[in-house]
TrEMBL record:
Protein name from the UniProt record: Dcg1p
One Pfam family matching this protein: Asp_Glu_race
Family: Belongs to the HyuE racemase family.
Highest taxon in the source lineage: Eukaryota
Native source species: Saccharomyces arboricola (strain H-6 / AS 2.3317 / CBS 10644) (Yeast)
Amino acid sequence: MVVNILVVNPNSSKSMTISLQETIEKTISKESCEISYFTGPNTSPPQIDGQETSVQSMKACLPVLTDDKGSIYYFQKFDGILIACFSDHPLVTELKDVAAKEKSNVSVVGLLDSSIQYCNLVGRNFSIITSNKEWIPILNASVQSKFLTGNTIDKNLWKGTVSTDLQVLALHSPDNFQQIADIIRDENLRKLDSEIVILGCAGFSGLQNKLAKKFEKEGTLFLDTIEVGLEILITMIKFVRSQK
C-alpha cells in the first residue's frame, strides 16, 4: 500500500523546496510513496539561520497545517510529515502535540532527531557539518540535551558540530563545493576523527554522493538527512499500519 507523506520546507524559499524534491525523487520510489511538498508562507523567513527564525517559521507554518481541514496541506490528510529543517525545530514538537490531542496516527519527524538516532544505532564516531556559525552552539546543545543514548555518551561517539561559514542557500552552489570539502577534511575528519558526517542542513541535499566519491579513500559515510528522515518516517508509518 502506498504511503502518503508531506515534506515541509518551513522557510519561504521555493528554490529550496524544488531542490528537496529533486533529491527525493532520485532516491524514493514513487510506487511506494506519494509525496507532497509544502513551502512556508510569505511570513516565514527565506532561510532559517538560528532560534529566532526557527520560531518565526513555526508560527507561520503551524496554522496552515492544522487549522483548515479543507486545505490540501491539512496534517491529518497524510500518513507522515517530515519537517525538512536540520534543527530541533519547534514545528516538530508542535505538530506532534496537535496530533496527540486529536488522537491522530500521523507520524512526524525532523531531520535532526532522525539522523542522530540513526548514528546512535550505528555506533561509530560522528559529527555534523552545518551552515553558519550561529548553528554550532544551538545544534550542540540540542544533541547533547535530547538525542544521545547512554551508549553513545559512554563511548564518546558524538564529536560535535563544524560550520562551513556559509549561508543556507549558498551550500548548494557548485562554486562552494571545494571549500566545503576542505573544511570537512580538516575539521570533521582530521580534528574530530569522525567516521560519519551528518550533512546538517537541507541546503546540503543532493551532495551526499558527490562527497562520498570525494572521500572514497577515507571510507567516510555521509548522511543525507532528508533520505534518512524519510526512510525512518516510512518505517514508522508501516508499523502504525500493521497495528490496524
